[in-house]
Description:
Blueprint: E1 5-9, E2 13-18, H1 27-31, H2 51-58, E3 66-70, E4 84-87, E5 93-102, E6 108-117, H3 132-136, E7 159-164, E8 170-173, E9 176-179, E10 186-189, E11 192-195, H4 210-214
Parallel strand pairs: 4-9, 5-7
Antiparallel strand pairs: 1-2, 2-3, 4-5, 5-6, 7-8, 8-11, 9-10
Amino acid sequence: xxxxxxxxxxxxxxxxxxxxxxxxxxxxxxxxxxxxxxxxxxxxxxxxxxxxxxxxxxxxxxxxxxxxxxxxxxxxxxxxxxxxxxxxxxxxxxxxxxxxxxxxxxxxxxxxxxxxxxxxxxxxxxxxxxxxxxxxxxxxxxxxxxxxxxxxxxxxxxxxxxxxxxxxxxxxxxxxxxxxxxxxxxxxxxxxxxxxxxxxxxxxxxxxxxxxxxxxxxx
Length: 219
């Protein structure tokens, strides 16, 4: 699931980069163009800005391909107060929180504070997005076909476990707020939700069983 991790060490901060999880959202390049320069080798220069500025921009990376370690005693990246899944228009599901990706047998595969999950069915790095939605022409407005009201005793935060079910959806266990692409609608899930990853559900971003009809195949 993860590729080669590249480490860019500065005086006060180390920026780590997972090439396989990068989909070129370019939040880093837009945020600090002097630190993150496409085509330069090395393309990240952590000393080109203050460590606090670098840290602030790194956490804007929706995929979690970038993360940092402080050498100067500065604050580590905090865990989000609540777990959220933001549906992007024509693209992945961007999740933030205290996240564990686990196999169907319970084996921990990855831990992160930010990940982008494939929902077009075409990624070669499932369950993570690899940008294939652009190549296959995946189209979806990012609306919520169904919205679940916030439960009275909804408790945000806590561990969120994402499990890719064989040939099926992403089973997400834990407290989760799912947000539409325009940010105007939310669906609240206090125990679990099944998110479509085949691209065919009529109830996106939630699974409706279409993966069985279209013969979706994925570990």
